[in-house]
Amino acid sequence: MINARKKILKEKGVAPTDLEEEVAKALFDIEVTPSSDIKADVRDICISGAQELEVKNRSAVIIHFPYRVWKNVGKIHGRLVRELEKKFSKKHVVFVAQRTMLDKNFKAKGIKVRPRTRTLTAVHEAILEDIVAPSEIFGKRTRICVDGSKLLKVVLDPKDKDKENVEAKLGTFAAVYKKLTNKEAQFMFPKLDGAITSGGASSLSW
Question: Can the peptide bond before residue 158 be classed as cis, meaning omega within 30 degrees of 0?
């Protein structure tokens, strides 16, 4: 477990949880497995946190990565999710980058200009993209309900429907987004409406 600890990057003095140690060990096992085709990439990856979330009849593991290693994660995103889901049997695994958000009082902290990437809206948009990755977002629409609440409808690229068991994870995506942003979202794939476009293919609606 000592070697696995190097896969966890926590603030000084903060002890990792049992789940974080379990994720770190799983990453280390992949790194030292001779037959693994992603071991070299995993060597440069560490986590900053992990949490478990109950979603209907199964659990989901949300793994947080330091932003500086997120690009490395992106290179092997799909394959790494598959490997970790094998190790965390019957659990969905979702990756999210650790991002720093600046509130409207940023000037009091000595910061003259707040980068757009640090705003609440930008961070929540980035979290949305992280959750569904490596699938891509096809479209978004906000629905205002009768009671005034908002529901974000997120449509994923139809070409990803049969990949990586994505369709079975739509409920998990919504639960994770709610957990991380406290916002309601519904994830779906567009439907073929039967209409034929000029190219001869059926058009999509949502």
Answer: no
Classify residue 182 as left (phi > 0), alpha (psi -120 to 50) or beta.
left
Report the candidate in 134, 32, 25 with the shortest Cα–Cα distance to residue 84: 25
118, burial (CB in 10 Å: exposed 0-12, middle 13-18, buried 19+): middle
Using DSSP's 3-state secondary structure scheme, residue 96 falls into: strand
Backbone angles phi, psi at 30, to 5 degrees: -65, -40
Residue 117's pLDDT band (cuts 50, 70, 90): confident
Q: How many CB atoms lie within 10 A of CB 64?
A: 21
Strand, helix or coil for residue 128:
helix
CB 59 within 8 A of CB 91: yes
Dump pLDDT digits (tens) for 168-185: 999 999 999 999 999 999
* Distance between CA atoms of residues 17 and 14, nearest Å: 9
14 contact partners, CB below 8 Å, separation of at least 6: none
